[in-house]
Amino acid sequence: MSQEIVQRTLRKLKENNVRITSQRQAVLEFMIGTHAHPTADDVYQALAGRFPNMSVATIYNNLRLFTELGLIEEMAYGDASSHFDFAQTKHYHAICDRCGKVVDIFYPGLDDVEVVAHHLTGFNVTGHRMEVHGICPECQLKQTSLID
What we know:
Elements: H1 3-15, H2 22-33, H3 40-47, H4 56-68, E1 72-76, E2 82-86, E3 92-96, E4 102-105, H5 113-121, E5 131-134, H6 137-147
Parallel strand pairs: 3-5
Antiparallel strand pairs: 1-2, 3-4
Helix pairs in contact: 1-2, 2-4, 3-4
Binding site for Fe cation: 128
Binding site for Zn(2+): 96, 99, 136, 139
InterPro entries: FUR, Fur_C, WH-like_DNA-bd_sf, WH_DNA-bd_sf
């Protein structure tokens, strides 16, 4: 994990008058360091050993705060739990329909989709999101082994 990214993000919190607690910093560092797309419960499980008095509500409140400040993105998919993503660059997601695994896709060719959408519709576009759904390689292997 890049300490530069952590420090830059902590500065942004301070600029927004957000108090930096050890728990808040731990949640932030976890989100910056993970390539997974964890739920609030995943973050809680990862940090519970270091912070035994911390609640899932504390995690959720911090994730909400980070989302409101634009530091992380909340992704609501078909299951009941929101997943969270610390993203420095615009990217998309491939989602496994079986296990729910989420994988980042970096495809700069879609960067101009908002401009195209504006020209085609007249909308003042505020953002976009793309999801690709399918079956991940691990679930494909499991499915193949069940057939054999």
